[in-house]
Amino acid sequence: MSTRQIVELLPRPEGRLAYTVTGTGPLVVAVPGMGDLRSTYRDLVPPLVEAGYRVAVLDLRGHGDSDTTFRTHGDVATGQDLLALVEHLGGPAVLVGNSMGAGAAAWAAAEAPDAVAGLVLLGPFLRDPATGAAKAAASRLLYRVALARPWGAAAWAGFYSMLTKGRRAPWHADHVAAIRASMRKPGRLRSFRDLALTLTHAPVEARLPEVDAPAIAFMGSLDPDFADQGAELAWIQEVVGAQGHLVPGVGHYPQHQAPDVVAPATLTFLAGLRADAQGWNARG
Questions:
Q1: What is the pTM of this model?
Q2: In DSSP terms, which residues pair with 220 in a beta bridge?
Q3: CA distance 154 to 150
Q4: By percentage, how much of the chain surpasses pLDDT 90?
């Protein structure tokens, strides 16, 4: 984040999760995608806090300042972690998620609708890519090799930059260096590798018909993770009734590649929820 914050720890059955909280008002909880850090939201948190929201940002299991003792990873585990943090901080909350974090947020909205006032989905994975079994097996083999020591941290740093296609934040190089340094700490590359090898979004897709929370989705027009970004965004709009924004000239991380687009649209979305959802508005 742009200013030094106190890192707090949320106890979970297999370890502790690191998070920070800034501001006062209705609760917003954000989580990154795999292989990323809380600082991915450094340009989104300040305008939300200034607008009167209490913003918590969570590190994934085995990532950043969270423990590496977790044996279970993935969308469902992350969704459970989001709901645990909402309960701990006093919800309901709007959940913000990038990549697999978006899938986890959608799962949480289906699992506990009273705890989730809305969804902000960034470069969202709400279903598995439409690839054959052979290609999926090849991808798992690639992860197994690429994320091994001693080169795994450097390999992921390079891939992260590839996913950040298009315009970049002025602090992009520092962020990638921080990711690489974090991955070199004991246990973190192993945790990330375990997540990458087992990750599936099928449990999220199965629960999407149960998602009633208002949602807004941002998809980068250059996102390398999707063969047809517009078509994927249209599907997300249809299946969860989300407002959709195809963000030109950015890749997989709209939150820091295009904060000038994401922040104003998110604030407008939140203001609408705040006017309509008095239960959410009254908290904080």
A1: 0.93
A2: 247
A3: 9
A4: 78
Q: What share of the chain is helix, strand, coil (3-state, %, to 5)?
A: 50, 15, 35
Residue 8 DSSP one-character state: E
The answer to whether 280 and 94 are in contact (CB under 8 A) is yes
186-205: pLDDT as tens digits:
899 889 888 988 889 999 99
DSSP state of 245: E
For every residue of 56-85, DSSP letters joined together read: EEEPPTTSTTS-S-----SHHHHHHHHHHH
34: left (phi over 0), alpha (psi -120 to 50) or beta: beta
Residue 95 near residue 120 (C-beta atoms within 8 A)? yes
Question: How many CA atoms are closer than 13 Å to the CA of 85, on its beta-carbon side?
Answer: 33
Alpha-carbon span 81 to 216, nearest angstrom: 21
- Rg, C-alpha atoms of the chain: 17
- Signed CA dihedral, 2, 7, 64, 184: sign only: positive
Neighbour order of strands in the sheet with 8-12: 8-12, 15-22, 54-58, 27-31, 93-98, 116-122, 215-220, 243-247
Q: What is the pLDDT of residues 224-246, one digit of tens each?
A: 999 999 999 999 999 999 999 99
Helices (H), 92-224: 100-111, 133-146, 152-163, 172-183, 188-198, 202-207
Residue 264's region, left for phi above 0, alpha for psi from -120 to 50, else beta, is alpha
Beta carbons of 262 and 256 less than 8 angstroms apart = no
